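Two records follow; treat each independently.
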Amino acid sequence: MTEESRLYVSLPLRMLEEQGPHFLSRRLQPEIAIKGPDFDDRALAGVLKRWAREFRAAGLGVSVHAPFMDLNPGALEPLVRAATLQRLSQTLDAAARLGARCVVVHPGYERWRYGGNEDLWLEPSLEFWAPLVRRAQDAGIVLALENVFEEAPGSLERLLEGIDSAAFGHCFDVGHWHLFCRDKISLAEWFGRLGHRMVHLHLHDNRGDGDDHLPPGEGLIPFDELRGLVEEFAPRATLALEVHDPEKLSPALVTVRSLFGV
């Protein structure tokens, strides 16, 4: 793996001290997943700076996954938006310390929560993201908006078009697509609408009945089709492997490297 590698591997921040040396020895680039309460640890800044030096010295990149539990950039409740802004501002600070160039963020839209009315969510979302995107752009960071519960790409399309910045792109999570969208919109149609906005992808598998984060090939997701669409629409997008079983990480890496040539 070289510093130009497009491939990252999910690593929870709470496991950074334990697993960091393993990542270095195997030359794995981490996507460091942060939870909101992690920021309440006064030692965090020092930990991030130290590991940033370690990964930089090894010629390895870092990406970041922002907190998302109970947070919502498009919330109608101002106090929820305020808490979300605080955590995402802290995330940008952490990403800057780590030298990360990509931060994955959740959009917060759920059809049932908003009664199918995207506008209720979109208006506060546009107001929320605009200053954060400007700040990210100044720091050389791209915010990658991940599909989660979306059943179609429309809400993400409208938000990305409304902001329309090179510092605000799409993180396509193929596992979430398979859970929530596969019977409503094909992979090809999703890429046809949002492929030009894709800057990052999350790779994991499932059988369609749970967010299992299996290694690619152990579920029912058509990864050969995905590979072709990535090559056509987003050939320079970075990739993050999200496999939760550490014993299955090595074979999953072999599969992903073979599929995507990384």
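The next record belongs to a different protein.
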Amino acid sequence: MTLLTIFYDGTCPLCVKEMQALKNHDDQNAICIVDIHSESFAAYPEIDPTKASTILHGYKKDNQLILGLDVTYYAWHLVGKGWLYAPLRWPLFKPVADWAYMRFAINRYTISKWLTGKSKCSNGQCSR
């Protein structure tokens, strides 16, 4: 049963790596990942692709929309690794973590190039 659907940027190398790592830990198939640049994204017309390319979007099983690090934390929580991200949701750290996440999201292609040597992916392949 799908407990979370994540809408992610499949052209971002770091985003793709994160989703692959997440799915590798998803033994219960609790998470569905949808690339916002794929044909399957058309099944979700209520999700604005421009907004979804700015901040990570997710739907819980009750169709509750969650955003940004709330998606990341909940996803890793579902696969038993939520403790890694829990501090990012603690009231003291949450505002700073959310601010840092937005800076990352805006600059994800540049950061991807610095960390992976690849700036963008297309057709499942990443390039410089």
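Discussion point: The mean pLDDT is 93. How would you locate this feature using only the token line?
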